[in-house]
Amino acid sequence: MLFLSLASIIANESITEQVSCHMNQVLLEVNVQDCFWLQKERESAASCPISASTWETWFTQWFQILHPNIPPAECYELSLRLTDNTEITQLNYQYRSIDIPTDVLAFATLELGCPQIPVSEVLASDSLYLGDIVISVETAVRQAQQQGHSLTIELGWLAAHGFLHLLGWDHQDRQTLIEMLDRQEIMLNTVGLKVNTQTIRNVNLAGYSQNSSGDEGNIRKLC
Is the pTM of this model over 0.70? Predict the structure, then answer.
């Protein structure tokens, strides 16, 4: 399929957990693909601090407060893949020609500039696929340590950032990035995660400044 579904990129490669949550008439299904903690060589490592059902609750709550301007559907779907730096580097190079790891990538089916689902298919389907979010847990661990907060907060922060992109938000300049960061903070507060606003904003804005000057090492611009 042309909309960069992770199912076609990495089919039969991970254990998938699917749960569905129905809140205030919003049905959102999240396909959680844990390819970090569930790899055989990491069997003795700690498990993901966020369960599949918690992920789905968070995304559903975020969807409710964002009121996205997207086509109505009986059910919405997205995929969340938790992986390592090796795989996210491969995806970063394959789709963005950047041969370095990043923290999060999003492949949106509804975003301009990304491969689109034909309108006829959207209207004919009861379920609307929003896209795929890929997070490097290795990078998330490092960034959580650098910023002095938990891995749960960092994973939630990255997932919120990717979800905004799936729903059409973007940061073309410094001001729109600030607006997006403010929205992410609201999203995390909604699910009970408190962030150090000044620290996390400074880190993100510093990364944006580096990107603007030609350093693509910390790019958070997603497809």
Answer: yes
> 78 pairs with which residues across the strands?
30, 131
pLDDT one-digit tens code per residue, 144-168: 999 999 999 999 999 999 999 999 9
How many CB atoms lie under 10 A from the CB of residue 59?
A: 26
The residues, any chain, with a CB within 8 Å of residue 24's CB and separated by 6 or more, are: 64
Distance CA 113, CA 30 (A): 24
pLDDT digits (tens, 9 = 90+) for 160-204: 999 999 999 988 888 888 899 999 999 999 999 998 877 787 777
Residues contacting 56, CB < 8 A, separation 6+: 19, 20, 21, 28, 29, 30, 32
56 in Cβ contact with 19 (< 8 Å): yes
Work out the burial of residue 217: count CB atoms within 10 Å of its CB; fewer than 13 is exposed, 13-18 middle, 19 or more buried.
exposed
